[in-house]
Amino acid sequence: MHARGPFIHEWVAEHAARQPDAPAVDTPAHRLTYGALGERVRALSAQLAAAGVRRGDRVLAALPNVPATVVASLAVHALGATAVEVNREWGPDVQLGIAQETGVRHAFVFGRDAVAWGKVAAAHPFDRLWVVHGGPLPERLLSDVGGAPATLLLEDGRVDPALPPAPAPPPADVSADAPALILYTSGSTGRPRGVVQTFGNVEANSRSIVEYLGLTSADRALLVLPLYYCYGRSVLQTHLLAGGSLFLDSRFAFPRTVLEGFAREGCTGFAGVPMTFEIIRRQVDVRSLSFPRLRYLTQAGGAMAPETIDWVREAFAPAKLFVMYGQTEATARLSYLPPERAREKRGAIGIPIPGVELRVVDEHGRELPSGETGHLVARGKNVTLGYFRDPEATAAILHDGWLWTGDLAERDPDGFFFHRGRSKEILKIGGHRVSPIQIEHAVAEHPEVAEAAVIGAPDPLKGEVPVAFVVARPGASPTEESLRAFCQARMPAYQVPVRFTVVAALPRNESGKLLRAALVESAAAAAGGGRARA
């Protein structure tokens, strides 16, 4: 068993005692100091305890990035209970399935989603819905939630002022192996799975990230990523550990407005997925903006084109870019590329974060020498206990203490790792095993291409062949002939896509990850029903 904490809710209490006036969690509409955050967590945990929430219970949250979201999860943790975090934009059927699977009796929901949650509450009995709203709950909203008992939680994290104060519950005796979070993966490509993250997982990963990013109480992150996403949540957790602060900004539909907040809010850090930086690159003249305190940027959530990585480093200099790799099953992070080695190790996902071991192994788990491609496995205190109530899926990823990431990688003689694709996505072209990412990066170097995605289509002679989908740069109109000629000059013939389709945008989920399954369906339809493969 891991050694005990302190854990995330205790970090906040310590900072509230030492620096009550320091900023903690802000938005364009609300400002919470550590003192205010600590007090609101105490008040809500008391109300939750009075409503029957106990250590080991599970409490669902389907909320946007507002201070109440942070207060809710911390209050749940303070009771030794588990926060079940889901995307509020998933439909009622998916939300109902998760509620039934986890057996939650309490849920934090957004006022605007009352009608959808009324449908869930009609099929699943809740002891109470905690409705996050900007003011008193109108009668209409109360009727929308289907008559389920409802309590107001203001968007700034204050409980309903009309509620009588509840007695403070005794401190929960929480072990490191107790579940702190269940983060549900996207339901857009199949049944969502709940990844269990323990209090010890969160502590270990947070301390490691704080160490290699050098975070202190002076750091302030501008966060546009959702808090139900492990990457966004890790930004929250690391800054709460360090005593730093966050500015939550949900206005990324207007990227320039968000970036203007860097200077105004004194932000030192920014986190994004590849799509985040592609949008900025296309829509914002970064040279016209000032980032006086920006110290670092981080990128994870999928492979970003090397050309875009180079652009980010140049556009935001002297701030340093940390290219990172991880997954929800690792509580967010497994490796990072030190910025000082970025040019020398271009294309690498880097070295293991502190406290993590990475290996490249064959299908039997035997470690492979440097230069050979194999399965990437990881070991560390940040690795999940598994999927919630899914022993079969858990057994598929955890073997002898190692997490099988599902990714293929190669380790160089210096101990740096290079991602070579998903093991289920590797293309088998006439006896050659090819990562679609390799082809995508080559296609994306075309001067008229902004993004590229590659899948495999069935071929009677070669087994399968690569098919490319490309997004053109603004004002550009790349032709299939020019794209093919460009690729033929840069890669072996078997890697050149047999077909190029120009699309307005690549399909992605709410976290910005590419949905290859949608491209497979599109390619199959274009080929008259033949099955393509991701």
TrEMBL record:
Keyword Ligase included in the entry's annotation: yes
Keywords, alphabetical: Ligase
InterPro entries associated with the record: AMP-bd_C (IPR025110), AMP-bd_C_sf (IPR045851), AMP-binding_CS (IPR020845), AMP-dep_synth/lig_dom (IPR000873), ANL_N_sf (IPR042099), ATP-dep_AMP-bd_enzyme (IPR050237)
SUPFAM superfamilies reported in the protein's UniProt record: Acetyl-CoA synthetase-like
Signal peptide: none
One GO MF term: acid-thiol ligase activity
Protein name per Swiss-Prot or TrEMBL: AMP-dependent synthetase and ligase
Species assigned in the record: Anaeromyxobacter dehalogenans (strain 2CP-C)
